[in-house]
Amino acid sequence: MSDAAIEIEGLRKVYAATGREPEKEALKGIDLEIPQGSIFGLLGPNGAGKSTLINILAGLVVKTSGKVRIWGFDQDVNPRQSRAAIGVMPQELNLDPFFTPRASLDVQAGLYGVPRRERRTDEILEMIGLSDKAEAYARNLSGGMRRRLLLGKALVHDPQILVLDEPTAGVDIELRQMLWKNVRRLNEERGMTIILTTHYLEEAEAMCDEIAIIHHGDLLVRDTTRNMISRIDAKTLVIEPVETPPADIALPDGVTLDRRADGRLALNYAKTKTRPGDILAALQEAGVVIADVSIEEPHLEDVFLDLTRSDAA
Ligand SMILES: Nc1ncnc2c1ncn2[C@@H]1O[C@H](COP(=O)(O)OP(=O)(O)OP(=O)(O)O)[C@@H](O)[C@H]1O
């Protein structure tokens, strides 16, 4: 077996036409390997095909063509083993309102054929912070609690791979931090491979080792988060002046100046063309006395916009 958690080759999905809707090619032949033990981000604008991809991995959507191997098991040849290797926390809060968290976890474990003595229901309830709600009906749980329960359900069969589809969309900061703490622990302590989709690029930047960007059903780019960010040849030197600086400052070629509302000066430059020292020298020359200096790095958002803006839908 290779050391990929997921291997995808030439994956296509065409949704059939319905009524007035024409057929839709949601995935146009994706090739992607996701390494074992990574925290992997799947990014893309709305309608890019992320959920389709995840639902194919989860066995919820049937692919049109291509190969999918999960933990070395070909989905078409070994459907049971490939399903057992993956746990999915879905986007929608689709819980049976009359089940308690304990019952939900038990039923899910039963569906995956986990023998009663091997079930870790109490441990999972504890981890997702629902031990004291174990016997409450799902309809009485808050949105945040339901989401935590969905995470618990994804873990009952102790999968090697955990997939999170927009796990933090619309959740408050406390829950977001709790989710990420748990996800990091699962990754670090159990070596679980984590695949997540998110619209929050800052989150992807903070959490993911590697990132793939999907757009209009194609894989645009896949790289380490660090490399992805270093593709952008732009940095910003931020200066806090002691006094209001003069209106005219002669700057090196290619450097642009933004005056921020808080009085700081933001000087944007291409790191391959200009040295920050040259900008500082120009400021001194113009009589700007500097109280503080910092450098802002580009964000994943800049890469994302750069790649997806040219042919926005
Ligand atoms: N069941 C379906 N039938 C027909 N078309 C579909 C179906 N599900 C998704 N699509 C279409 O396939 C494309 C990809 O959708 P998908 O939900 O995979 O995108 P996404 O990247 O997950 O978007 P979002 O971030 O909004 O969830 C979209 O154009 C969508 O309208």
Automatic annotation (TrEMBL):
The keyword Nucleotide-binding applies. It comes from the Bacteria. SUPFAM superfamilies: P-loop containing nucleoside triphosphate hydrolases. The keyword Transport applies. Pfam families: ABC_tran (PF00005). This is ABC-2 type transport system ATP-binding protein. Transmembrane segments: none annotated. Signal peptide: none annotated. Keywords: ATP-binding, Nucleotide-binding, Transport. GO terms for molecular function: ATP binding; ATP hydrolysis activity. Residues 6-241 form the ABC transporter domain. InterPro entries: AAA+_ATPase, ABC_transporter-like_ATP-bd, ABC_transporter-like_CS, ABC_transporter_ATP-binding, P-loop_NTPase.
